[in-house]
Amino acid sequence: MAWESVKKHTRRLSDGMQFFRSPTKAIPPPVETDPHAPITMTLADVNVQFDESGVWTAVDRRDHAKMEAEIAELGEKARLLDGENQVLKFKLNVVMDMLAGAKLDVLKLQQELYIRKSGAK
Distance between alpha carbon 106 and the CA centroid of its chain, in Å? Predict the structure, then answer.
């Protein structure tokens, strides 16, 4: 109910606004494309195309080999980083265990100190 009231009394930013093109800028010509043409683009000097099966493929065979080599290199790098991540997680767990042990030692010493102080009074 309250939300409807807010929506009723709030107008959109674009309501009533008119957008004008700068008089110094030329109007770009309309782009006419074939709606059935495959989507192509250039990524890092490699021309790729989105095919009917939903996969990006290289247009040129040499580019395809270059992409496969880069994919293999990135896969190896990801594998190495995953291994490094596992080692760092293990080290973090060891440090957390050490910290928990140190905290327990401090608590035990504080308890002993409290007992000695209260017994001396």
Answer: 41
pTM above the 0.85 mark?
Answer: no
Residue-wise pLDDT for 88-109, tens only, equals: 999 999 999 999 999 999 999 9
Structure tokens at 112: 């002993």
In three-state secondary structure terms, 62 is helix
In DSSP notation, 24-44 reads TSPPPPPP---TTSPEEEEET
Three-state SS for 53? coil
**Chain-centre distance for alpha carbon 92:** 23
Query: Largest Cα–Cα distance in the chain?
Result: 95
Per-residue b or e along 78-103, where b marks 16 or more CB atoms closer than 10 Å to that residue's CB: eeeeeeeeeeeeeeeeeeeeeeeeee
